[in-house]
From TrEMBL:
UniProt EC number: 5.2.1.8
PANTHER family referenced in this protein's UniProt entry, alphabetically: FOLDASE PROTEIN PRSA, PEPTIDYLPROLYL ISOMERASE
Record's signal peptide: 1-24
GO MF assignments: peptidyl-prolyl cis-trans isomerase activity
Protein name: peptidylprolyl isomerase
Pfam families, A to Z: Rotamase
Organism: endosymbiont of Escarpia spicata
């Protein structure tokens, strides 16, 4: 089944999740399975809690809540598919993935150690008394003084701690080896007990790094600071297993889709071909400021048309006679409408109109319309260069849909809907 059908199924399940308590899903109910992995109600709750819309969710109406949950559920299932595909392709065994996880691990250790260092700093009683004496009636001033004291103490403690750790781990810097254009990736620039930094480690992911000794020394010392502090935290026995496993589970699907995106956008020619195949990228849509009145039958519409042509105001008549609630409330002023966003028959009727010229009667399921263009914003040409980012986004969106359909051929997706006798197998 195509991706659109899966989205509909997600929305249906989300609607059930948003139903009153009497129809609520049991705790840890499996909502969907993708291959060998499952998405539970707890997974969805966790995703909701970390969503940018979490604080707004209680104030949303039931339909919007269902749409949000459906979207999150779809993403969770997609993540499971990507994870299994990445495992199949052994992306988790690549050097890039291992380095990514190691960078994350070092960052966690660094933050843990530094947070602990900062939390151990206190404002002594004599300093507190001095601040209170200096700012007797100024709460904000006293708070700022305490913050300044803590900041100064942290900087001093940080410097002293790094100095002590460098001595503890016998750090040696080979500054004489830092010679522009004369270093290989494996040139060792710094080493110590369990610590080694080569030229490649120092420059990191920099493309064409500056051949500048001052710049490289700064990079080297920053890398050394990270490693000695991470080693100190690791020596304390900090347990990061849960957070690292969680990161691996999140990062692996992300690397999988990043790899596919690099394949899809292989160069300028690929994007240019997509741009040429979609004329809507080469120009902005024309926009019209529309005035409209809607009548219930052709006879009434014909009578009102004659009255407008005789000089009466479409807007006054719309406020009095229009059967469209919004149009009546707005007295016929429908605001700006972009070409392609309105009813096709109405757009066809107004396409050849001059400004303030009344259209012929247009019949739609909503009634019989009389429309005029009050003002317009013309279509403009757009170059490939100016639209490159949007072209890339469009191509990624198009390829993503095809890719998830492809994954569905490899991994079976099962949606567990409350009220059904058994899970329904669906393909994207």
């Amino acid at each position: 089944m195509k991706l659109l059908s899966v989205i509909k199924r997600c929305l249906l399940l989300a609607a059930i999740l948003a139903a009153p308590q009497s129809y609520a899903i049991a705790e840890s109910q499996v909502l969907a399975t993708a291959g060998e992995m499952s998405v539970t109600d707890d997974d969805l709750k966790s995703a909701m809690a970390s969503s940018p819309f979490a604080t707004q969710f209680p104030s949303m109406d039931r339909e919007d809540q269902a749409l949000l949950r459906g979207s999150l559920l779809q993403r969770l299932v997609a993540s499971k598919l990507l994870y299994q595909e990445a495992k199949r392709l052994e992306i988790d065994k690549t050097e890039a993935f291992q380095q990514d996880v190691e960078t994350f691990r070092l960052g966690l250790l660094y933050r843990h150690f530094m947070d602990k260092l900062r939390e151990g700093i206190r404002v002594p009683e004599d300093v507190t008394a001095s601040i209170q004496q200096q700012y007797p009636n100024d709460t904000d001033g006293a708070a700022a003084a305490r913050a300044a004291y803590l900041s100064d103490r942290y900087r001093a403690m940080r410097y002293l701690t790094i100095k002590n750790l460098r001595n503890k781990y016998n750090i040696k810097v080979y500054e004489s080896r830092i010679q522009p254009h004369q270093m290989s990736d494996d040139t060792v620039l710094l080493e110590g007990d369990g610590i080694l930094i080569t030229y490649k480690h120092a420059v990191g992911n920099q493309v064409n790094p500056p051949q500048n000794k001052t710049w490289l020394m700064e990079r080297l010392y920053k890398r050394a600071e990270l490693l000695v502090i991470a080693k100190a935290a690791n020596d304390e026995g900090v347990d990061l297993s849960d957070r690292l496993n969680s990161y691996r589970g999140e990062r692996l699907p992300a690397m999988m889709i990043e790899q596919k995106q690099r394949e899809w956008i292989s160069g300028k020619d690929t994007l240019k071909k997509h741009y040429d195949a979609h004329p809507e990228f080469s120009r902005t849509m024309e926009r019209w400021h529309i005035g409209q009145i809607v009548l219930s039958n052709h006879e009434d519409a014909e009578a009102v048309s004659q009255r407008i042509k005789a000089g009466e105001s479409l807007f006054l008549l719309a406020g009095e006679l229009s059967i469209d609630p919004y149009g009546k409330r707005m007295r016929g002023d429908m605001g700006w409408v972009k070409e392609g966003a309105g009813h096709p028959d109405i757009e066809k009727a107004v396409s050849g109109l001059e400004d303030n010229q009344l259209s012929e009667i247009v019949q739609t399921p909503a009634g019989f319309h009389l429309v005029m263009i009050l003002e317009r914003s013309p279509s403009l040409k757009r170059t490939f260069a100016s639209m490159r980012d949007k072209v890339a986004q469009s191509l990624i969106s198009e390829k993503s849909a095809e890719y998830f359909n492809e994954l569905s051929e490899r991994y079976k997706v099962v949606w567990n809907l409350i009220g059904e006798k058994q899970a329904q197998t669906e393909k994207h």
